[in-house]
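Can you give me the bound-state structure? Components:
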Amino acid sequence: MGHERVAVVGIGQTKHQATRGDVSVAGLLREAAQRALADAHMTWTDIDAVVIGKAPDFFEGVMMPELFLADALGCTGKPMFRVHTAGSVGGSTAIVASQLVAAGIHERVLTVAFEKQSESEAMWALSLPMPFTPPLHAGAGGYFAPHIRSYIRRSKSPDHIGILVALKDRQNGLKNPYAHLHEPEISFDSIKDSMMLWDPIRYAETCPSSDGACALVLGSEKVADDAAAEGRQPAWIQGTAMRSEPTLSAERDTVLPLGGALCAADVYKQAGITNPRKDVDCVEMYVPFSWFEPMWLENLGFAEPGEGWKMTEDGATALDGDLPVNMSGGVLCTNPIGASGMLRFGETAMQVRGTAGDHQVDGVRKAVGHAYGGGSQFFAMWVVGSEKP
Amino acid sequence: MRDIAIISFAQTPARRSVPELNEVEMLMPAIHGALEQVDMTIDDIGFTCSGSTDYLAGTAFSFVSTLDGVGPWPPIQESHVEMDGAWALYEAWVKLQLGELDTALVYAYAKSSPGDLPMVLTRQLDPITVAPLWPDSVSLAALQARSMLDSGKATEADFAEVAARSRKSALDNPNAQLAWDRPAADLLDADYHVAPLRKSDCAPITDGAACVILAAGDIARSKIERPAWIRGIDHRVEPIHLGLRDLTVSESTRIAGEKAGVSGGAVDVAELHAPFSHQELILREALGLGDDTDINPSGGALAANPMMTAGLIRIGELATRISNGSANRGVAHATSGPCLQQNLVAVLEGEA
Amino acid sequence: MPDITLPESLRDVEAVRSVRTPAQLDYQVVAGDATTRFLRNITKKRIVGQRAPGGRVYVPPRGADPELGQATPIEVEVAQVGTVTSFCVVNLQFYGSGMEIPYTSALILLDGADLSIMHLIQEIPADQVRIGMRVEAVWRDDADIEPTLESIKWFRPTGEPDDVNVRIPGEKRGTGLGSWPGGVPPTELVVRNPRTGLGGTAADGGED
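Here's the bound-state model for the whole set.
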């Protein structure tokens, strides 16, 4: 036994939008799953097990929805598994699925992550009036905005960095046909002039709320070799890592969480990355509010402490920069919460396979996918590459 | 596969309601108990995994604050499943198979008391065609029980035998919620609860928590004299729609049992997660268990049924019996979803 | 896999696009031990944090010391005065909060507590709120005091000079625990392990 090689051999996602009123929850998942299966040249019967991920069940108003989705996802008589690690879930779901192959238990695993926020009220789901609990006063943005202010203060970053991130990601999103937000008219000024919701976070620096799903087919070395022999480049998983830390801890750094840095160090070590800025060709990171790009650049070791914003300002993270970040448009363009992490992981696999279309970066050999959740406390990362680990 | 064993198990005493504690307060004694029994701390644990669901207590992200109970600082390697803790154990077992980590802590908990459990569970059903009708979990189980009677596979007296034996066994289980000694025949005198099920055929509603520690190879041997080795573990699911299944059999349990290797040796003890008495009969048949197997010596789910936890408890109860030498090889089972929709089977054995 | 096609008989039938299925579930939520003790003190207009032996002072306590994973039986009254460690200005009306916008939601480190609580800042224009500003609790009228943190209406400036050296959790010399100075990743050892007492080389618990 031990650690078998695993590769992504199929990727599928839905068209993401505010309301996918044309499909049921099952239909949404099948749209992504069937695209992933088609991409992998497989059918439902080829799949050994299915791993499903999503964020809180209150989003759709169905308790443990994987149970009613089992037959729609071809699981009858097969193992089906449900992961929930808050916002990082799309990433951790892919990791759990990959481990089923890595451990030699299965050859072909389908993993699907989704959120259909239009089915209920997301704000409601996250703000059930819980007795005895201090009120948040202003939703998720109100939670994260003070941490962003701390970052700006300690890094002495100029105010316009968040706007630059939002502009870049929204422009990248224009190249991604699946992205939720397509705003061709977006400009630095339109972002700057958008409403300051939770100062320092503007409306146009905030992720949307989307319906969407993402699916990956993960294969064993043999499955991936067969795909490669037919000319379909596998995205080899070179490392996976997860870390968790408490929401509240006296020492915890909510701006640059230790768990995020440990997760990155772990996954880089597995993938043989010694100099992240040099060794990594592109990154998809979880940026629901624009300022998280410079924060994560520092947390994941791409920039010195306090210097992440300079990479953004210098254009290093642009599609044509030396470390493109969020080529797909990222969470700022598309945010079906449970799927958002898997979309990051899936985009890295597309980049490695050379199938990212208009948002393809040339010659990607190693790409990093990142997701986080909770109060910046749950982290999931992977590295995929064109070469076997 | 790599040799992985259960080396410690702790659970909280099952109670209908634990009103004086919140979830993490209820959970902590189980985690601390499991760690202390093998003289470990969270620093000795490679991977942590938990099972719970938001719907029971009505709180989104309830698992986020219960993670505080392990003391995840410095940051830890951790994951969570919105499933019974038995599946969290499965994820931990897979993680240890990779060979990079040697120990895992698995916990599960649920407070069913804040809500109306049979009504809460209706939210699992198809949201368009079934859930709007609010068919409660006891009524769905009663449909299954009726199928058993109509097929001639069992009688109400058979149900009562299971109910009486389980509660009598529970007299030896200090953590049980329901334990008594009454002849099966007397149970049939009671009125139906939801025909053909009587109250005695149904599991109690329970608040509770449990924790299991896994270790690989020599680490397990160094911690306890007789680790309970996981010889096989597998899980399978079926469609949720009752009309798509023969409710008198559990095909998913049968497949999982076959994959886990149940028939590969004598089964001294089986801990089956059957929240309704007739379901034990279905599971016994699906797993091919004969009269020489001691079924649910803990009293099973009929003695205590903390949601998301009762399946993990089955594994822990079996491991305890193997580790104390009262059994050598056994089967543990966990279920989820209406009428045994999803099932996990583990085979544990004492000898290395 | 062939496409699924609609049966002939359904071709001219207007599709059902959606159904509304309202659901209501009632829950009786309990506070638990730690929160009950905390809120009982709130009704006496006292802010009493809790800690485990060897642990930190948590306000409000949630039942477990998240560093030690232990219950928090030790009660420690903290001050009703503290320092703003960060904040945001909210310009959006949130589900019935009834607040006049803009308003300020801040992280406030009460004197004697080990980590910040989130609460409102009032009685000062939003654009004058600062990190390091000293603030004090403003309680509701005595008749309206209930076992809820909302019995503190908000915090307001005390008028004291700013605490420019306020300890901001996790922040050390502006670099943060989870950063890579010199390209070197941090390890678990940068924080003190609360069980073994080891580590903490970069801890910002007041050592420097």
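A couple of observations. The longest strand of chain A covers residues 211-220. Chain A touches chain C through 65 residues (CB under 8 Å).
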